[in-house]
Design brief:
Helices cover 39% and strands 22% of the residues. It contains five helices and six strands. The mean pLDDT is 92.
């Protein structure tokens, strides 16, 4: 599985917000064209419903909100980078989140959903990759690092 099949440079953003709420709103705007059948409000609602179950802040500066939606034809990924970190993300290690990866998959496509989660986690488990993404100069560099899986 290649992350580049689900992520485009246009879906990579440098986050401006400093709170989880602001960051999630920015992520949903970045994902605006995931589907003509799913609008921003529906996606944001699904993200917050998922967050109510348990925070998607998995530690090591990572947040991986993931949702399944009926109106999606295929899975898609958006990435947001916060150089200062989102302190109120409620991460498992209680540290700020610097990289948010939003994964949206069609309802009923459990395999692709799990494979994308695993692929993202595998790439971002590397300390040098996470640091390079946080320090990247622009979206194109973040995209390159993520899709190549190395610095």
């Amino acid at each position: 599985m290649k992350l580049s099949d689900y992520l485009t440079v246009e879906h990579v953003i440098i986050l401006n917000g400093s709170t989880k709420s602001q960051a999630m709103s920015e992520m949903v705007v970045a994902a605006d064209d995931f589907s003509e059948k799913v609008d921003q409000e529906e996606l944001l609602k699904a993200v917050w419903e998922r967050e109510k179950m348990m925070s998607t802040g998995i530690g090591q500066g990572l947040g991986i909100p993931h949702v399944r939606l009926t109106g999606l034809a295929d899975a898609a990924v958006a990435v947001g980078v916060s150089r200062d970190g989102i302190a109120d993300y409620e991460s498992l290690d209680n540290k700020p989140v610097h990289i948010i990866v939003l994964i949206a998959a069609p309802q009923g496509r459990h395999e692709i959903y799990i494979r994308l989660l695993a692929r993202v986690a595998n790439v971002l488990k590397q300390d040098d990759v996470r640091m390079a993404i946080i320090e990247a100069e622009d979206q194109a560099e973040v995209y390159r690092i993520l899709t190549e899986g190395k610095v």
